[in-house]
Hints:
It is found in: Secreted. By secondary structure, the chain is mainly beta. The chain has one helix at 2-16, and strands spanning 19-20, 35-41, 55-63, 72-80, 85-93, 108-116, 125-131.
Amino acid sequence: MNASLVFVVLLATVCAAQREIKLRKCKDFGDHQLLKSLMITPCDSDPCTFERGESYNATFTAESPEDIEDMYVKLVVQSHTDSFKVDMVTWDSCHFVDVPCTVKAGETFRGNVKVPVHKAFSAGKLTVRIRR
Length: 132
């Protein structure tokens, strides 16, 4: 009985440490939104609070607008305040991140990328862009 109670408490703790991000429509795409869902882990507040020097997982589902033979992910993490902006950009092939390599047009696929929040970032607004 104690083991099952510990499991339930552990499961509740893990589930509480992630948050599905509410998406808003982009004007560029009208009713056809390519990003379908986004989950940030760990995240236990709304909005998520990120700590410098830590990494977070972004799990997403998206619809491919075209046939893709060799998927890559461009991750842009941007820290900005009123006086300056710092960009960290990485490009990764499907062979190094959790995304499929081949996707057909109109197909919905799942991906997972690690988002680093660098120590060089100052407190303030953080923008993360995941692009194909």
